[in-house]
Amino acid sequence: MSHSILDLIGNTPLIKASSLINNPNITLYLKLEGHNPGGSVKDRAAYNMIKSALDRGDIDKNTKLIEATSGNTGIALAMIAGIFKLDIELVMPENSTKERVQTMRAYGAKVTLTTKDVGIEGARDYAEAKVNNDGYVMLNQFANEDNWLAHYKTTGPEIWRDTNGTITHFVSSMGTTGTIMGTSTYLKEKSKEIQIVGVQPTDDSSIPGIRKWPKEYLPKIFNPSKVDQVIEVSQDEATNMTKRLAKEEGVFAGMSSGGSVTAALKLAETLDSGVLVAIICDRGDRYLSSDLFE
Questions:
Q1: Is-catalytic flag, 42?
Q2: Which of 72, 80, 234, 250 has its CA 20 to 30 A from that of 34?
């Protein structure tokens, strides 16, 4: 029995893809992060960042928290900040889906929308200015070691356990890069032969949750030596795969998950055998007001 909603973070299901892989010598597993209570993989990092900061005394109930987010981290932070009775302001571009904005507000967070033309970079700049000028504290998922450590402590060990140590390739979309950094660190300690594959959008593509950052905005927690290969995915490929996941696998997810599975299938075409694990970052219900499933 769980005694708190926080006890439900992690230990998400790992399922075998039933129709996407034709090679009998290759197995593709999907890690269903939408089963976290906040609906995405970001619950792990948000909880570890807030709990660790509280334990160290870096923040308390008088702290004014602020964070820039494209969506999932904001929802997770809003949920967990509410549980710990912390005030938090979340900053995101105005073209974010209304489901995300409404969910954050439902958890009790203040949501500030920046103009869509400045994107997530502009939201980050706004949050930085509030920290520098108005006494706010930013958890800063892009530079916070507790982000990737969440996955070192939970996601990596779960994948190793649930594949019985047979995993050969780990595939993850890259945004803040916390998921791939922490999981890579753990899995490489278990076997240096495990290949870590990051997913980025092609230059002309916009895929929520996957970024190819300008140099000045590159997450400080990112260490390129922990990624063996990067596969680029187009917006159309990610969209089409997201729809296939729902129709063929019964996995209802967002476009970043379609991106990671697209990359996993591209990878599989180059392999004779292997056990692949791809991250399914969140649930599809927070994209219903977009044109993703039209």
A1: yes
A2: 234
